[in-house]
């Protein structure tokens, strides 16, 4: 869609962090923004600042039935949904042995099954409209993982894999963007957003530093407002990427991981190729 055309946005997790920054930037440009949140009154100030352009809807994305209903409600009210931003999420820190089944399942409901349900529900509306965009807010943790971030990264890896397939199977004008931010000054590490599993002493040396890392909340170098502007710039680009890394740390760390993986692939390539049936 051209940069000077107005859009209708549905943004989950719109009360804080990237969701709030994206909602603010889109509304400031004159677009209509429907902010989805569990606590809608946290959007009152944004709605007041942009009368008639910002609207709140109650949604817990782990309720997949409600996800489908909200998409239909928004499309019926505004005639279309041009951009869906799957942003709602939280931090989860814990070694696998420390992470309970309930913690793991909830995180997948929040980061994977909810976005999958919203994307599934919006596709018929975008097909009818002849196009649209789905933005999946992933993370550098969707490209690589580290001690204590296994559960978190697993959900983001899953979302990225699903989106790679979507880009290839959806051929009616819908674009997909996976955003992989590095360290940004959002509330993700804050006490109301970060969740830490019950620690086990066996993992003090490996996961302990990751728990301490949460204490850096408020000192991250990334600016969410600039991230939002970068995302909108990509949406206006004639040939947008599938993935957008955000932050110098993201570019450098993802680049290093890709180089390491490429080198490892090459090192073992002969053995990998030698597994074919003889004569095939």
Question: How does this structure look, described?
Answer:
There is one protein chain. The chain is α/β, with parallel strands linked by helices and 280 residues long. It contains 9 helices and 9 strands. Strands 3-2-1-4-6-7-9 form a 7-stranded parallel beta sheet, with helices on both faces. Strands 5-8 form a two-stranded parallel ribbon. The model has no long low-confidence stretch (mean pLDDT 93). One of its GO terms (molecular function) is oxidoreductase activity. It holds the Pfam family adh_short. It comes from Asanoa ferruginea. Keywords: Oxidoreductase.
- CATH architecture descriptor: 3-Layer(aba) Sandwich
Order of helices and strands: EHEHEHEEHEHEEHHEHH
Percentage beta strand: 15-25%
How would a crystallographer describe the biggest sheet?
A: 7 strands, parallel
CATH fold title: Rossmann fold
Distance linking N and C termini: 49 Å
Structural class: alpha/beta
Q: What would CATH call the class?
A: Alpha Beta
Helix content: 40-55%
Instruction: Identify the CATH homologous superfamily.
Output: NAD(P)-binding Rossmann-like Domain
Any idea what the shape is?
A: globular
C-alpha-based Rg, rounded? 20 Å
Whole-number mean pLDDT: 93
């Amino acid at each position: 869609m051209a940069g000077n055309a107005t859009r209708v946005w549905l943004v989950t997790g719109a009360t804080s962090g990237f969701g709030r920054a994206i909602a603010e930037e889109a509304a400031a440009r004159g677009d209509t923004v429907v902010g989805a949140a569990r606590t809608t009154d946290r959007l009152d100030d944004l709605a007041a600042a942009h009368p008639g352009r910002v609207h709140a809807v109650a949604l817990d994305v782990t309720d997949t039935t409600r996800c489908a209903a909200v998409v239909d409600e928004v499309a019926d009210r505004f005639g279309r949904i041009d951009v869906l931003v799957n942003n709602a999420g939280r931090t989860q820190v814990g070694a696998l042995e420390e992470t309970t089944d309930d913690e793991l399942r909830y995180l997948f409901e929040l980061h994977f099954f909810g976005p999958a349900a919203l994307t599934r529900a919006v596709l018929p509306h975008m097909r009818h409209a002849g196009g649209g965009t789905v933005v999946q807010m992933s993370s550098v943790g969707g490209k690589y993982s580290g001690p204590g971030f296994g559960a978190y990264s697993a959900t983001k890896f899953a979302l990225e894999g699903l989106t790679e397939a979507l880009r290839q199977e959806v051929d009616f004008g819908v674009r997909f963007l996976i955003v992989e931010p590095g360290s940004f000054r959002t509330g993700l590490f804050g006490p109301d957003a970060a969740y830490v599993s019950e620690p086990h002493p066996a993992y003090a040396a490996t996961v302990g530093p990751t728990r301490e890392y949460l204490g850096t909340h408020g000192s991250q170098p990334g600016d969410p407002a600039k991230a939002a502007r970068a995302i909108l710039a990509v949406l206006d680009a004639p040939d947008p990427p599938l993935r957008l890394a955000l932050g110098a740390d993201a570019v450098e760390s993802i680049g290093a991981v890709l180089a390491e993986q490429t080198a490892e692939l090459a090192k073992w390539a002969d053995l990998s190729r030698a597994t074919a049936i003889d004569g095939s």
